[in-house]
Amino acid sequence: MQLIAIDEAGYGPRLGPLVIAATQWEPRQSSPCLQGLLRSAPNMALQTKLDAAWGGYREPVDCDGVAIRVDDSKAVFRSRSADRTGRSLHTLRLTVSALQQLTGIASDQSHWQGWMSHVLVSDGPSSGSHLAIPWLDAWRGSQAKALEPIAVVSGAVERWKTLPWLPVASRARVVSAEAFNRFCHPAMSAKGSGARGAKGLRRNKSDLLSLESLRLLVNLLESTIRDDAGPILVFFDRHGGRRYYTKVIQEALAPTSLEVLEETRQLSVYRCRWRGHVCWLHFTVKGDRFVPVAASSLHAKYLRESAMASFNHHFRSLWEELGAEQRETPAFRETAGYPVDAERFLRDMRGVLKGVLLPLDAIVRRS
Hints:
Low-confidence stretches: 190-195
Helix content: 25-40%
Shape: globular
Mean pLDDT: 87
Number of helices: 14
Strand content: 15-25%
Radius of gyration: 21 Å
Strand order of the largest sheet: 5-2-1-6-9-8-7
């Protein structure tokens, strides 16, 4: 049996990328009880019964003088605007580093360029467009340290590797503002009557999130799943209030069979057959309270926060090159990209944006 959890960071902001991350987990020891769960505890009860096996990840453990744990990302991480000390980001980095060390990450993949080449897959809907986005290129190619060495996070690694389930792989997709706009608003960049898919259906950011999450699942399955893997359980946080996923599952996975097991306000569950494997797909309200989904959320948040650091560094450099008379503000103020602050940032950067060669759609997501 395999378990895969997928979550995102950056769904709501107007600046910076949408990042979707997946973590793959295996039971440390095979057990007939796990197979029995699929028959005796379908749907919501399945996640509830599985949840107890991850309790150890929620218990704080000391790493480098910091207590880390894997839990709902909103409880673990505070944005830079809410935590000026940077301590929360350091805690996030330690947590992700410990999880990555459990997957057996190589020492030469501990810097950004090595880790990016290991975990990032193609940028989803940006395929077919090759705009150079300087802050994303600098982020992916950085030689700065991305992950802490095992000696720093050994307390967590030693404790977590005794737990019933272990992370064995991770992957991520990054959707830039330009890719987001081309998907959701193609008529604004090319002839057309609206944001429509191949079959004439209107597209929105919920469609984008669902399709890219499911395509990330395919990427992970293609690169890691063995023929004898057995049942594959997949858990997602619900996508923007969406209850029905049949069409996006068919588009992204092209399963040979697809069965709706449940579609309620709290939970949507599907069983499908993909290339000979039986997969259960769970989309749950507040799904990131489940530790594997929380772990994926923490990965996505860490990747997005680091991408935003590169974004802010890029625009700070351009702002500093302006003469004082061209600057809109006496001091540069960073942004986390959320709508109100994004508008403030764009006002502050009016002098900078006049000299930027990229179109605005490559910087700002349209609402």
